[in-house]
C-alpha cells in the first residue's frame, strides 16, 4: 500500500521490448536505498516489483495488461517518473490509501497558472466519473491530490509549488497522459451497495 506522497523524481534509463511485456530500468537512489529483490516501488502510481538492483537503479518487468491500462507504455529513456516506496506499518498516512492499481488514464487538458499555485484540468474516462467527487481524493501519476471540481468528463486539481517542483505534474503539458487511481473506498462502497440491492431484490434504502 502507498500513500501518494512522492519520494523522488526518478528517470527511465532503459526500456527493453519483450514482445508481450517490457522491462524498465529506472534511476532512483532514494527509493532503492535499502531495497531488495521482490520489493514494490510505485512508478507514476503503478505498483511494480523490483527484479534487479544496481547502484541506485532498479529493474522492473511490466506486463501487457499494465502497459494497456496505464501510461507506462509511453515512457522512453530519459522520461521523468514519480517514485514511492510502500508505506511501512506504523508510518503516518500523509496522503490517502493508494493501492498502485491504475484504474485508467486521463489527459492533461489545460493549465492555469497563478502566483502561488496552478489549476490543472484533467480528462476523466466515463467509467470513472462516478468515483470522483468535489473535495474527494484521487491519485494522478502516483500523487495524492484533492479534487477541486468534478465535471461530467473532467476534474481539476490545484498544485502547490512543492508538487510542481518535485513531481512530473510540474512538467506535464496539455495532451500528456496521466495515470489515474480513484479512491478505493468508493469502489468498495459501490460494490457493497450493489450486492445488497441484488440480494434483497430491490434498491438499498
Automatic annotation (TrEMBL):
Keyword vocabulary terms for this entry: Repeat, Riboflavin biosynthesis, Transferase
Residue span(s) of domain Lumazine-binding: 1-96, 97-193
Origin superkingdom: Bacteria
Enzyme Commission code: 2.5.1.9
InterPro entries: ATP_synth_asu-like_sf (IPR023366), Lumazine-bd (IPR001783), Lumazine-bd_dom (IPR026017), Riboflavin_synthase-like_b-brl (IPR017938)
Involved pathway(s): Cofactor biosynthesis; riboflavin biosynthesis; riboflavin from 2-hydroxy-3-oxobutyl phosphate and 5-amino-6-(D-ribitylamino)uracil: step 2/2
Catalytic reaction annotation: 2 6,7-dimethyl-8-(1-D-ribityl)lumazine + H(+) = 5-amino-6-(D-ribitylamino)uracil + riboflavin
Signal peptide: none
Each Lumazine-binding repeat, start to end: 1-96, 97-193
Pfam families reported for this sequence: Lum_binding (PF00677)
Function in brief: Catalyzes the dismutation of two molecules of 6,7-dimethyl-8-ribityllumazine, resulting in the formation of riboflavin and 5-amino-6-(D-ribitylamino)uracil.
Protein name per Swiss-Prot or TrEMBL: Riboflavin synthase
Originating species: Streptomyces camponoticapitis
